[in-house]
């Protein structure tokens, strides 16, 4: 029986494709020890408002420093403000959504807490959303594994550490993965074939690839079922 693994940085309120990849794995590695990247999705994501798409951004310290994600701290001078600000934006723009009442309590409680670590915040939100989407994949922190190296060498080490023989990559992995390295070591490489679902949104024309909160509030997560459709390393794009 095959053991499938994949991984990703612990993004802030990730989009649905993040959870689609997670749901197709037996073990999902939270890449908490990779370098934090500014202007990426580790501390921000997009939602839809009456005025169009907008960013929700968690303010962080250490601007300009090279640090792993697990060491990034939320800006202390704004720790009592940003959470309520995000909560109010969500409430203002989604309180009329069909499933707002199903999920609002979890997010309100999360945003009323004081968070010091970006990693702790993101992992709390990710685990809560997993429950809403009924995902039971086992999570493991990369920093807890005895897996070193960079890029494909690190992925191979992580696969061996968790006992996986299939690695599920995002489609972008075709660019940087050393596929022969993994497959010569007995790790089959497959690629996520995710197609963003179209559903009824608020505020006008449909916009894909927003934070998963848009999908939850507008569509609900109870009937969501990821399709286990992979493309192998030999398939075309």
Work out the oligomeric state of the chains in this entry.
Answer: single chain
Number of strands: 8
Shape: globular
Strand content: 15-25%
Share of helical residues: 25-40%
Number of separate helices: 8
Largest sheet: 6 strands, mixed
Q: Ends: how far apart?
A: 27 Å
Top-tier CATH class: Alpha Beta
Mean pLDDT: 91
**Which structural class matches the secondary elements?**
alpha/beta
What Rg do the Cα atoms give?
18 Å
In spatial order, strands of the major sheet run 5-2-1-6-7-8
- N-to-C order of helices and strands: EHEEEHHHEHEHHEHE
Uncertain stretches: none
- What's the CATH architecture name? 3-Layer(aba) Sandwich
What number of structural domains do the residues give?
Answer: 1
CATH topology: Rossmann fold
Summarize the structure.
33% of the residues lie in helices and 16% in strands. The protein is α/β, with parallel strands linked by helices.
Task: Pick out its properties.
globular; Rossmann fold; single chain; 237 residues; alpha/beta; six-stranded mixed sheet; two-stranded antiparallel sheet
What features would you describe in this structure?
- The protein is α/β, with parallel strands linked by helices and 237 residues long.
- The protein has a single domain (4-232), classed as Rossmann fold (3-Layer(aba) Sandwich), CATH 3.40.50.
- Helix content is 33%, strand content 16%.
- The protein is built from 8 helices and 8 strands, in the order E-H-E-E-E-H-H-H-E-H-E-H-H-E-H-E.
- The strands form 2 sheets. The chain has a 6-stranded mixed beta sheet with strand order 5-2-1-6-7-8, with helices on both faces. The chain has a two-stranded antiparallel ribbon with strand order 3-4.
